[in-house]
């Protein structure tokens, strides 16, 4: 739908909807990228014996490793969100980080005190606490690229 302005130009009434769709798509794609990278690495490390089989308590070293690569993938996913965002890339990346906090909190609540095979309590807490900083870093990387493009 378009409407005629007094000046003779038109305004596309669908632009906010299109921008919202692109925003949702950016957050969705970036989140899926982070999830797929994590699941792929988990599967590879399970297959290689780096991470313990299901039902076996993970070691502290295995949890540290998982925390590190999950953080790296959270930064990558947030960067993708910011890259695809139609505007305000940092805000979009932080929305992804907020979703990471929610998902990590749900994971912590559902596995808390369910047994040693779910690992030490510090691990889900670390995932909750690192979600926003990782998202910020991914957004910051994209913002710094955009700033360099503006200067050049």
Fold topology:
Layout: E1 2-4, E2 10-12, H1 15-48, H2 60-84, H3 89-111, H4 122-151
Antiparallel strand pairs: 1-2
Helix pairs in contact: 1-2, 1-3, 2-3, 2-4, 3-4
Please characterize this protein's 3D structure.
By secondary structure, this protein is mostly helical. It has one domain (29-151). The chain is built from four helices and two strands; from the N terminus they run E-E-H-H-H-H. It has helices at 15-48, 60-84, 89-111, 122-151, and strands at residues 2-4, 10-12. A two-stranded antiparallel sheet has the order 1-2. A hairpin with a 5-residue loop joins strand 1 and strand 2. Residues 1-12 have low confidence and may be disordered.
Integer-rounded radius of gyration: 20 Å
Q: For the report, how would you describe the main beta sheet?
A: 2 strands, antiparallel
What count of domains describes the coordinates?
1
Order of helices and strands: EEHHHH
Structural class: mainly alpha
Uncertain spans, ≥5 residues at pLDDT below 50? Answer: 1-12
Order of strands side by side in the largest beta sheet?
A: 1-2
Mean pLDDT: 91
In percent terms, what proportion of residues is strand? under 5%
Number of helices: 4
- The residue fraction in helices comes out at over 70%
Cα distance spanning the termini? 38 Å
Give the total of beta strands. Answer: 2
Which outline best applies? Answer: elongated
